[in-house]
Every structure is written in C-alpha cells, then in structure tokens.
Backbone:
C-alpha cells in the first residue's frame, strides 16, 4: 500500500543488523519490496492476490498478517544470513503497510466517506497515489544516489528461493520494473499535494521506524 520508495526508505533506516555483506544487502532490499511482486491485473487486483502476498485474509492491508509471517519464516528458524535479511525486510514491509493504511489512507477515507474496495474508494486511492509517487520522485531528485535503489538495480537475476507463492524469476522481474519506474519517472511539475505533503511523508517514515524497531529485537 505504501509506495515502493517509502518501503525502501523505511528499510534503509532499519538495515544495520541485516546488511553485513553485499549478498545480505541485496536480499534485504529485495525483501523490502517483496510483498509487492504480484503481477498487476487491475487496481487492487494482483496474482498472487494480496491475501497471499501480504498475508491479509480479507485482502485489506490494514490487516497484513505480519505476526503470522514472522512465525512462519523467522521465529525459531535456522536461517542463512541472506535468508534472514530477506525475511526481516519482508516483515518490515508488512508492518509498514499496516501503519500506512492506519495513518495515511484511513484518515482521508473517513473524511471523504468512501468504503474500502468500492469504486469511489479505488478512484480516491488513485488520486492519493499521485501525491505518494510525486513525493517519491521529488525525494529521488534530491537523493539521486539513493543506495537501496542502486542495490535493486544491481540485483540481476535474483532467484526466488524464499517464497512458494512466487515463481523462480518473479522477484528479479519486479526489481527491474521498480528500478525502471523510478529511473524514467520525473517530478510532477505544478502538482498540488492534496492528501499528503513532504512533511507528512517524512513524519510517517520517522514515526514508523520508531514503531517497528522494537519488533526486530531478537531476529
């Protein structure tokens, strides 16, 4: 639900225990956008669906099953450092999406009066995303050497050895899509940020990092 750049910025702020080698670093940043590797069908429709990729039984990302994912892939598991980095970042993504819906999406939805999944709500989300990705492009213009994006650009044919619901090449293909999106995008000139400002996005990231950090203890 949050933009790819938001997920990468959050991941970067929490990366220290998981990026001790170049291999771990690549796995970590791939994992940071790992839940968003379903093939796009239409707005809010992916294959595999959100229920699978985000562990959200009802398809609503406020209800991402971060705890269930952690139990399945992290807690009590004997993992290579690379696998640990991938799963930790995936877990961070799920926690971030829950907070993004709570703090960024739902307040706007409540003000406008739309219900989740309705045509009006889908249209509203598309309008909100103009702000989100516009802010992403502004951030990237200010930080052209942003390390996580450079890492994804160098991920190459990153094989999926981690999740049964993705194909062997799914992760690598989506990393290429994400890098291409940001490298070919431009700052939207004259755009009015109606739903989210730079200050609001920066504040969310800082707050979310503080909320998530305690959940990473012991991983």
Residues:
């Amino acid at each position: 639900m949050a933009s790819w750049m938001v997920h990468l910025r959050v991941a970067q702020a929490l990366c220290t225990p998981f990026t001790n080698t170049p291999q771990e670093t690549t796995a970590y940043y791939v994992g940071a956008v790992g839940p968003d590797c379903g093939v796009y069908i239409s707005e809010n429709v992916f294959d595999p669906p959100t229920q699978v990729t985000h562990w959200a039984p009802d398809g609503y990302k406020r209800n991402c099953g971060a705890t269930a994912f952690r139990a399945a892939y992290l807690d009590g598991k004997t993992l290579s450092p690379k696998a640990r980095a991938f799963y930790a970042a995936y877990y961070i993504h799920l926690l971030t999406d829950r907070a993004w819906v709570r703090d960024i999406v739902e307040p706007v939805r409540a003000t406008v009066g739309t219900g989740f999944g309705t045509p009006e709500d889908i249209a509203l989300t598309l309008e909100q995303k103009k702000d989100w990705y516009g802010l992403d492009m502004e951030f990237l213009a200010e930080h052209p050497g942003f390390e996580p994006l450079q890492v994804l650009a160098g991920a190459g044919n990153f094989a999926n050895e981690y999740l049964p619901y993705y194909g062997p090449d799914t992760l690598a293909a989506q990393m290429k899509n994400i890098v291409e999106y940001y490298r070919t995008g431009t700052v939207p000139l004259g755009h009015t940020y109606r739903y989210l400002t730079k200050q609001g996005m920066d504040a969310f990231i800082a707050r979310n990092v503080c909320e998530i950090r305690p959940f990473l203890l012991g991983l």
Notes: Residues 81-112 form the longest helix (32 residues). The first strand starts at residue 39 and ends at 42. Strands lie at 39-42, 45-47. Residues 138 and 209 are 21 Å apart (CA to CA).
